[in-house]
Amino acid sequence: MKYEEAFAGQRQTQIDAVEELSSRLAPGSHVLDVGCASGRPTSEQLCANGMNVTGIDVSQVMLDHARRQVPAGRFVLADLFGDTTGLGVYDAVACMYCLVNLPEDRFVDGLRRLAGLVRPGGILLLAVPEFRGTEEEVRFVDWTYQPQRCLSEDLRRYAVLAGLETERVEVHAEPASRGRPNPGNSLYLWANTRTA
């Protein structure tokens, strides 16, 4: 599958972050994987760590892969920017590399929507590529796009605007691979929803 091949060898920081998330949750906790794609690695890892996992994605094809690859998870066709009222509320939400290439207002709206799916005091884990902003287009799998600037200070500001309590923002250098000789850095936002 092209999607999984695109990230081959570049998932270790994501795996480490999801491992930490799992260690902070009680077994059986309800976790939502937003933009779960094929279910690997996040949904699969969370299920293996004893979590009750629901994954959502806008692609039925990806959800079909996820159901085959992670039979312990529950996978639902849903759009974060659409109607999410039927999804419920979770102990934690992971959103790995979904809120990318968005202007500030749309990014903040996405964070607010994610926060609305987390119980008060729950954990929100978000990963995005760091990007300083240039005129160059970025190629991903079969398409190219003009990315928006996203630095750690931007991510902190977005979290405040979304009403989240930021625990920390981490910057991780991603390893190079044959298809991506200079993959750059990833930003990981750890935040909590307000209890009152």
Provide a descriptive summary of the structure in words:
The chain has one domain: 3-Layer(aba) Sandwich (Rossmann fold), CATH 3.40.50.150. The chain is built from six helices and nine strands. The chain has helices at 2-6, 12-23, 42-48, 60-69, 104-115, 152-161; strands at 30-34, 52-57, 74-77, 90-96, 118-129, 138-140, 143-145, 165-173, 185-192. A hairpin with a 2-residue loop joins strand 6 and strand 7. The radius of gyration is 16 Å and the shape is globular. The N and C termini lie far apart (44 Å). The model has no long low-confidence stretch (mean pLDDT 88).
Main features:
196 residues, alpha/beta, 6 helices, Rossmann fold, seven-stranded mixed beta sheet, 29% helix
Number of strands: 9
Separate helix tally:
6
**Principal-axis shape:** globular
What's the N-to-C terminus distance? 44 Å
- What would the average pLDDT be, to the nearest integer? 88
**Level-1 CATH class name:** Alpha Beta
- Name of the CATH homologous superfamily: Vaccinia Virus protein VP39
CATH architectural category:
3-Layer(aba) Sandwich
Low-confidence stretches: none
Give the amount of beta strand, in percent.
25-35%
**H/E order of the elements?**
HHEHEHEEHEEEHEE
Describe the protein's topology.
Elements: H1 2-6, H2 12-23, E1 30-34, H3 42-48, E2 52-57, H4 60-69, E3 74-77, E4 90-96, H5 104-115, E5 118-129, E6 138-140, E7 143-145, H6 152-161, E8 165-173, E9 185-192
Parallel strand pairs: 1-2, 1-4, 2-3, 4-5
Antiparallel strand pairs: 5-9, 6-7, 8-9
